[in-house]
Design goal:
The complex is a heterodimer. Chain A is built from 20 helices and four strands. Chain A is mostly helical. Chain A is globular. The relative contact order of chain B is 0.18. Chain B is an alpha/beta fold. The chains are: A mainly alpha, B alpha/beta. Chains A and B meet through helix 14, helix 15 and helix 20 of A and helix 2, helix 3 and helix 4 of B. Bound molecules: adenosine-5'-diphosphate and magnesium ion (MG). The site of adenosine-5'-diphosphate has 11 residues of chain B, from strand 2 and helix 1. Adenosine-5'-diphosphate (ADP) binds next to strand 2 and helix 1 of chain B.
Chain lengths: ~500, ~240
């Protein structure tokens, strides 16, 4: 313990297991943080290029910089206090910071939002420290196991509640167009997350090029529909098939690779597909993309105000007034069903030998081989099936947008999908849902902060990773219980 | 049942086995003892085809398995409990056992489960516990149980006593004898714990630097002065 003047008063407290910092040291640490952030804030926040009447000016934003630095200084102090085990002060401080964010006349809406959330984060962290300490002292067990048990019991209820909520969402008063659009987007990412989860979460194969299969699915539908007039319902399985086929093509060369090397090659594969789509102009129309992709029909009923001669459209058949919402709601249910199929399939296959072999392969490849598992076929099947679901999602994407271009399938997409899987806790189905809502839904909902979306995305990732480094829900659920097995034996 | 003749195995350019001959008959417990790095594990793994024998021949139940891929060898009725146990840490005991049965007949799963639970009752008590949270002894029991789930005719065990307390070692060796006597399963046991292994085994081999230096019945080897000096120092008493 550093011997500053008042450093001794804390150390005589025998009940606290850890040493306490003297106030001087706390201010020193917080001050250092503030200085460092000031150095970063000045160039990044301090200047803004404004455009007035065709001329460009350099505006300074001193108040924002000072407020931000001040907030960082305060926040750091409270975080240190949390770390040192005190509760009341940080909670009060967090509340004050949040209140500042909400009510104080800060010139930047973004800093307001950041201050508000930062305050909440401090409170949550303080609560967690106390909670964790109490658990550890009362049961002597690691924090987390109690949470895991409770979570496992609550999971079926939570899942059913979520599904019911998803089903009735379009009927709710707040189920307006914008909400449903966002829900469709989130569901698309949930489906992609669940698909990639098969490869990364279950089989443990780090795939950085998953977007390639999304692209293959989207282009299969776009091209088959525009060249051969195939309908969506014919193309959907074909898109999955093509994507699965590409999964196997990718799988072969990377069979012997693990970890970093596998990641690099799959990344390259993802980019390759995009570059091919970009340059094979005669087939894909290159950077212009494929447009005029037919929208899906409801068992042959189209969603058009004025259907073509001799056909009936959805609203006429059901005797409804025409509304553009019909198609959106239909697309919503379509992706909901596709996503639920993905989920059901994954949960089912985990209990079958092939799914079990995927998980075992992730844990220990050598042990797998000594049990008679063929690693090659096992890996290929994981790639193919994961890719297949990416292909389904791609076909959905194409029919929803009515337009596809290589731009939609950049590496960033792969990274986002992977982030959803990793942050959700590899292999956890519910984790993917939560991560997709947090990473895709929230930033989309607060579109007013448009320019800060990627920043919010990054902040979300950093927060989750520092709070739960193995992902939100990292506990793997067993696929068989002893009671069930005994029921069978007796 | 298993005959190994003049097997050479390489790791890159380094020759780990310099022409090994070995014979295991149906229903026997045969042990292979030797110092650290002698090549014992390499021999077991070569039987499983990974690494593959560079030259020589391995015949199992009249069938030449030298060139078969590993996963096919493991479906011929051979089970391997590898060195260091290698159970699946994030899977429960029950799931580990399911993995062991993955090549077996699904209809006989319940029966096999009952049998290994009979041999290791602790595994039944802990069925839902994750493999990684078991104690060393429990993990070793799980590794053997997992190997038994495929109903092998030949069980290869690589140092099951490694790092375990004497009481647990005795328990595990009792089970091995039990399996051998009750179901006539052939066991090939690799051990550094020469005293226990030789007492249990019908016959034994001694390996030095990738070659078999001595062979005989378990009792003869136990009483052999050279074996006593090299491998049993302080163990008999
Ligand atoms: N994967 C490997 N690559 C290179 N050399 C290895 C490998 N595994 C084992 N060896 C070498 O082969 C020899 C025999 O090792 P091993 O069969 O593990 O011995 P034992 O099981 O008798 O202790 C040792 O010299 C060891 O260094
Ligand atoms: Mg060894």
């Amino acid at each position: 313990m550093p011997s500053t003047g008042n450093g001794t008063q804390a150390s005589i407290l025998p009940d606290s297991g850890h040493r306490r910092l003297p106030p001087g040291a706390i201010f020193k640490e917080a001050g250092l943080t503030a200085v460092v952030s000031l150095a970063l804030l000045v160039p990044f926040v301090g200047f803004k290029i404004a455009n007035r009447g065709g001329e460009q000016f350099l505006e300074t934003r001193l108040p924002e910089v000072l407020i931000a630095a001040g907030l960082i200084f305060l926040g750091r102090i409270f975080l240190i206090l949390v770390r040192e085990g005190s509760l009341a002060l940080p909670v009060a401080g967090g509340a004050v910071i949040s209140a500042i964010g909400l009510f104080a006349p800060i010139p930047s809406a973004f800093i307001q939002a950041v201050a508000f959330t930062a305050g909440l984060v401090i409170i949550v962290r303080a609560a967690f420290m106390v909670f964790a300490a109490r658990r550890r002292s009362s049961t002597g067990r690691e924090f987390g196991s109690g949470f895991a048990d409770g979570y496992r019991k609550a999971l079926p209820w939570l899942a059913s509640a979520l599904i019911v909520f998803a089903v009735i969402l379009p009927l709710m008063p707040f189920g307006e167009r914008r909400t449903i659009d966002i829900a469709i987007l989130v569901l698309t990412y949930i489906m992609l997350g669940w698909g990639l989860n098969i490869v990364v979460g279950l089989a443990g194969l780090l795939d950085l090029g998953y977007v390639a299969f999304y692209a293959v699915g989207a282009y299969s539908y776009a091209l088959l529909a525009s060249y051969f007039d195939f309908s969506f319902w014919v193309c959907l399985p074909l898109a999955g098939l093509f994507a699965g086929f590409f999964g196997i093509i990718l799988g072969f060369p990377v069979l012997r690779l693990r970890g970093d090397y596998l990641a690099i090659v799959t990344l390259g594969f993802g980019e390759m597909i995009r570059v091919i789509l970009l340059n094979w102009v005669s087939l894909t129309k290159g950077p212009d993309g494929v447009s005029g992709i037919p929208r899906p029909s409801f068992f042959g009923l189209e969603f058009k105000r004025y259907p073509a001669e001799g056909t009936e459209s959805f609203h006429q058949f059901f005797g409804l007034d025409y509304s553009s919402l019909h198609r959106v709601v239909f697309l919503y249910y379509l992706i909901l069903i596709l996503a639920l199929i993905t989920n059901f399939f994954t949960r089912r296959i985990r209990t079958l030998p092939i799914g079990r072999a995927w998980e075992a392969l992730r844990e220990d490849e050598i042990a797998c081989r000594s049990l008679g598992i063929n690693p090659r076929n096992t890996k290929l099947s994981a790639f193919a099936i994961g890719a297949m679901f990416g292909g389904f999602a791609g076909a959905f994407f194409a029919t929803r947008q009515g337009f596809v271009s290589p731009e939609s399938f950049t590496f960033l997409e792969s990274a986002i999908i992977l982030a959803i899987v990793v942050l959700g806790g590899m292999g956890s189905q519910m984790g993917v849902v939560i991560a997709a809502v947090v990473l895709i839904g929230l930033p989309e909902y607060i579109r007013d902060l448009q320019e800060y979306r990627m920043l919010a995305f990054g902040a979300g990732m950093v927060l989750i990773m520092s709070w739960r480094p193995r992902g939100l829900l990292s506990q793997r659920d067993p696929t068989i219980s002893l009671a069930r097995a005994e029921g069978k034996t007796s | 049942m298993l005959s190994i003749s003049d097997v050479h195995t390489f790791y890159g350019h380094i020759e780990a086995l310099h022409g090994v001959d070995l014979e295991i008959k149906e229903g026997e417990i045969v042990t292979l003892i030797g110092a650290n790095g002698a090549g014992k594990s390499t021999l077991l793994m070569t039987i499983c085809g990974d690494p593959r024998a560079h030259s020589g021949q391995i015949v199992f139940q009249g069938r030449d398995i030298t060139r078969l891929p590993t996963h096919e060898i493991m479906r011929c009725g051979i089970a391997h409990s590898p060195e260091g146990r290698r159970i699946f840490p994030r899977m429960t005991i029950l799931e580990n056992l399911q993995m062991g049965a993955i090549t077996g007949n699904p209809d006989r799963f319940d029966q096999n489960l009952e049998r290994v639970f009979g041999l290791f009752p602790i595994l039944q008590e802990r069925g839902g516990q994750r493999g990684g949270t078991l104690s060393g002894g429990e993990q070793q029991m799980l590794a053997i149980a997992r190997a038994l789930m495929s109903e092998p005719t030949l069980l290869l065990l690589d140092e099951p006593s490694l790092g375990l307390a004497p009481l647990i070692v005795r328990q595990i060796f009792d089970v091995i004898r039990d399996i051998n006597q009750s179901s006539g399963m052939t066991v090939f046991l690799v051990e550094q714990n020469a005293f226990h292994a030789l007492r249990l085994a019908d016959r034994g081999y001694v390996m030095v630097n990738g070659e078999i230096s001595m062979t005989g019945s378990g009792k003869d080897l136990l009483n052999d002065p050279e074996v006593q000096r090299a491998y049993l120092e302080g163990a008999v008493g």
